[in-house]
Specification:
Strand content: 5-15%
Oligomer: single chain
Order of helices and strands: HHEHHEEHH
Helix content: 55-70%
Structural class: alpha+beta
Distance between the termini: 31 Å
Number of helices: 6
Length: 116
């Protein structure tokens, strides 16, 4: 990831409603969520949501796909992973004590263990 892409992604996430929308989409999984459902879940007007989803999409963090009369939005996990990788590149100068706290945080995430 280039620094300009990282800056765009971080700027997009540096807004409470956009961060909440992105987190909701991350939790939703690959199937995504219809724009109307996102608006209801976040209790925001559709036009406000639309503008903020456009910022997230422009930053490459989400994709929208029309299905019938709805637009289904989904998080781009590849972009999220690239941003996290960019932020952790050259992690903490190689200090294992600091890096271990970051890996511990990742381990505490709610992602289930991979099915064997």
């Amino acid at each position: 990831m280039e620094s300009s892409q990282a800056l765009a992604a971080l700027a997009a996430l540096a807004h409470g409603m956009r961060l909440s929308a992105f987190r909701l989409l991350v939790q939703a999984g690959d199937g995504g969520i219809a724009a109307g459902e996102i608006a209801r879940a976040l209790n925001v007007p559709a036009n406000t949501l639309s503008a903020n989803l456009a910022v997230l999409a422009h930053a490459g963090l989400i994709d929208g796909q029309r299905r019938g009369r709805s637009i289904i939005y989904a998080a781009r996990y590849d972009a999220m992973a690239a941003l996290l990788g960019y932020l952790m590149e050259d992690c903490c100068g190689g200090n294992p004590r600091i890096c271990s706290t970051l890996t511990d945080a990742m381990a505490r995430s709610r992602c289930p263990d991979e099915v064997q």
